[in-house]
Write a structure and sequence with these properties.
The complex is a heterodimer of chains A (about 190) and B (about 190).
Chain A lengths: L1 H23 L3 E5 L5 E8 L2 E7 L2 E7 L8 E7 L3 E2 L3 H8 L11 E11 L4 E9 L2 E4 L2 E8 L2 E11 L19 E12 L2
Antiparallel strand pairs in A: 1-4, 1-12, 2-3, 2-12, 3-6, 4-5, 5-7, 7-8, 8-9, 8-10, 10-11, 11-12
Chain B lengths: L12 H25 L5 H30 L11 H31 L5 E2 L3 E2 L8 H36 L14 H7 L2
Antiparallel strand pairs in B: 1-2
Helix pairs in contact in B: 1-2, 2-3, 3-4
The chains are: A alpha+beta (about 190), B mainly alpha (about 190).
Amino acid sequence: MMRRAAMSFAILSLATAAGTVRAADAATSYTADPTPSRLEFIGVQAGAEFKGSFHKFTAAVDFAPEALANAHFDVQIDLNSLDTMDKDRDKTMRGPDIFDIAHFPTAHYVTRSFTKTATGYSAAGTLTLHGVTKDVPIDFQFVSAPGGAKLEGTAKLKRLDFGVGQGDWKSTEWVGDVVKVSFSLVLKPKP
Amino acid sequence: MPNQKIPPTRYSAVAQLFHWVIAALIVTQFVLAWTADDLPLGMHKLALLARHKSFGMTVFMLAILRLLWRFWNPPPELPASMTPIEHMLARATHIAFYVLLFAMPLTGWTMSSAKNYSVSWFGLFTWPNLIAPNDAAFDFLKSTHDYLSYALFAIAILHILAALKHHFWNKDDVFLRMLPLTKLSKAKSERRP
């Protein structure tokens, strides 16, 4: 009995020590290379999906697989760079009833904590969009590459949680509430 | 010849059903399109155009079935009393209708793809995009779709006037044989005092 307790204590100490060492590992700081990086979303209009993207955004990514406690993402999205491959729709979406970019030109995503999952990683974080801040978890994969890393992932949010869609656009009959977000970031070490 | 049946004197019930359902859908299509054209991009326009696309794709599917049905069940012959010019005109009108029954939905479907608005069928499934989003292609296809709709409108007017002329002027069966629950003139003449 005593021996088992001692053994447990030893293991616990080792694990704690290892944990401390790991936590002390610094996460590498990256920024997303704007040219090859993508930030896209899929909305639903009249029952059919449509894809759009944001061409301008910045992503500061602090990440190392062995230092999740020190990981941190900070993403700023310029909503004016919205592109759904239809100018009329882009104009409507920038307008007062949808993104209202005159008042809310950017969206901001910040992570809070990270966990390892079966397929990659999951981050808890908040998205500030249209003046509303809400939790939006993201799932992603992180792959180290020569001279940087690749970060690919997805998120799902409800546009109406953020008040994106006023007046007629509050209805979900013709424009779906759920919006899927996907991103593919080519990360370069921060200079 | 697909079959050796005696030539029919009127359109089959199935052919009549195709004709009237598609005719009703086309009238609906014009009303939806004209209403939507006057609206700014908004929920109401989106809703009208969504229905327009669903009905249009319905016409497309019905047109395929109708053509197959017509192939296996040839329509009744036109009356011998019609002149060769009238025969030719009637035939040309009908061919033009069939061409438009395909060309209208196909240009509509392609222009939706070009504008990155995929076509859903009543929200049940989404048709694949035929081309990648492209502004120039959209403008071209939209004007083609519009011009074809004017042609369809003109041919439909000609078709209706011709049917009425056959009924009231020539007093033959050309109109009646596309109507359900009517007796053809042969039966009518037997009942005549």
